[in-house]
Amino acid sequence: MITYLDTSAVAKLLADEPESQALRAHLDNRVAAGDADLVSACLLETELRRMATRIGISQTAVTDVLSRLSLLDMDRSVFREAGLITGASLRSLDALHIAAALQASANDFITYDARQQVAAEAVGLRVRTPGRS
């Protein structure tokens, strides 16, 4: 099963936020069951490294988290598809994550971004938000 994590989710693995523990437990359970291929788009690396710089998290911690995921290369078709996703308030990088998840045939899409969640559900992705009601 392919589980796609966007930046708002992976950030919770680096910074202690209200949903961090629930997300870690969810992912640990999936991996322990042999039921999870954890993936994200290659743009995640840039987003996480910039976030770490902003909030004072070590780049070593970022490297460690990234090593636990498969990062997908993005060809031009992903950029085109991202540009065509509906939703006037959907941001470009969020649209790229959705398009990458679609291209990867993700079974689950984990995000904690409300606008992205609406757009992801609109294109048929099953959205998960461990730790959120």
Task: Break the fold down into its secondary structure elements and pairings.
Blueprint: E1 2-5, H1 7-14, H2 20-32, E2 37-41, H3 43-55, H4 59-66, E3 70-72, H5 76-84, H6 92-103, E4 108-110, H7 114-122, E5 127-128
Helix pairs in contact: 1-2, 1-3, 5-6
Q: Quick recap of the structure?
A:
This protein is α/β, with parallel strands linked by helices and 133 residues long. The chain contains seven helices and five strands.
Description:
The protein is α/β, with parallel strands linked by helices and 133 residues long. The chain has one domain (2-128): 5'-nuclease (Rossmann fold, 3-Layer(aba) Sandwich), CATH 3.40.50. Helices cover 54% and strands 13% of the residues. The protein is built from 7 helices and 5 strands, in the order E-H-H-E-H-H-E-H-H-E-H-E. The chain has helices spanning 7-14, 20-32, 43-55, 59-66, 76-84, 92-103, 114-122, and strands at residues 2-5, 37-41, 70-72, 108-110, 127-128. The chain has a 5-stranded parallel beta sheet. Helix 1 (7-14) crosses helix 2 (20-32) and helix 1 crosses helix 3 (43-55). The chain starts with a strand and ends in a 5-residue tail after the last strand. The mean pLDDT is 95.
